[in-house]
Fold:
Amino acid sequence: MKKYIPASGISMDRRKMLKLGLMAGSAAALPMQVVNAVVEPNKDTNVIFIWLPGGLPHMDMYDMKPDAPIEYRGIFSPIKTNVPEIQVSELMPMHAKIADKFSIIRSMHHDFSDHGGGSKRFMMARDPKIPNGTINDSPAISAVIKQQLGPLSDYGMPSVIGLGYGSVGTMGPAWLGQANAPFLVPGDPSSPNFKVANIGVDDKLANRLTDRMMLLEGFDKVRRDIDGDGTIKAIDKFNDQALAMLTSEKVKNAFDLKKESKKTRERYGMNDFGQKALLARRLVEDGARFVNVNWSRPFATVPKTSASNWDCHSVNCNLHKDLEWRLPPYDKALTALIEDIYQKGMDKNTMIVVTGEFGHTPKINPASGTKTGVLQPGRDHWPKAMSVLVSGGGMNMGQVIGATNSKGEYPIDRAMTPNDLWVNMLQHLGIDHNLVLRDELDRPIPVLPFGKAIKELLKS
Structure:
């Protein structure tokens, strides 16, 4: 088997492969399924999938009910946008200026109210066997995307990336094998100490890798000679791809936010939300295909009245004070990303999705705050109705799709599940949403057991 030799002249190193997470396991972890579909993915499309862990409070952001009783509507008012039929929270004035560049889905729903269960339901596109925890019993759709598109894009970038994740969580590949787990980038890109591990090598490390590979090549040749089922050749393929990424200046530069101007970085916001959004844009611009961005909290220091993520129970935070702290950087970062995508002419190729695992209770439930010790407003878990924002992707923008009842409790028009949204995302990437895989027991498993494209988003 002919090896790919990167420009640096280094061949490959299995230990670096393990650290990169593109294989992340032994030969037994390599996917063994048979794909029952032939796909020709679009090489130039991508998805930025922004995940709000804890779930966004739809009644306070994108599905406000100003005529509902005060215990439902809260204290914030909706404001008009540049699209007459779209209103958003007064805490998101930048959204109001670019509503023609996004659409809001107000009728998404499912049945799992636990964080783990709701996240798995969304990411696996099927009911989890266990309604809590973060261990997938079926592959996350992001793992299917990586399995279909390969660990690296045609441009040498990791195909599937998790920004802000220290562990795979509900992006787990299950029986698809750890080779299809995302490339994880933990940390806050706005931190002065932020660094992406295992990207780029200096001359000293390059020499060490070369010396080690000369020693290992003899052993590898013997192992290949006795390789009967192709497993070792498969490992070689992943190793070559991993080291190509490790030694790529293009990949290293894509992760370097210092390449951006101060003005651009400040437009996004010098905080976790803003710099992750900017980094996501850079990554898809240079060839990444699916970037899952975790927006938990905008700043490292969390006020006593706020929560560490979007889980706005009254025991965790004062709902209203938390949103006054959280939504301005959210508003700034998301609108900067959307505007940037459009200004750069990336809006047809780049699809942006913003969601959490569920919405929050339409009725406010006051309780004593754990940190504040005083009675304060909050909302609990609510999967029966949730809002999702989408932008770009060559889709129809400037519209509201679906509706909930007068108190925001459940859909009354165009009820949808996460599966419908996944159909659109897979179609955008050029992956057949009717794809059927075979699991470790050779059973045929549809990637999406059900779901139809959200037709309102599609241009005729």
About this structure: The mean pLDDT is 87. The CA atoms of residues 224 and 232 lie 6 Å apart.
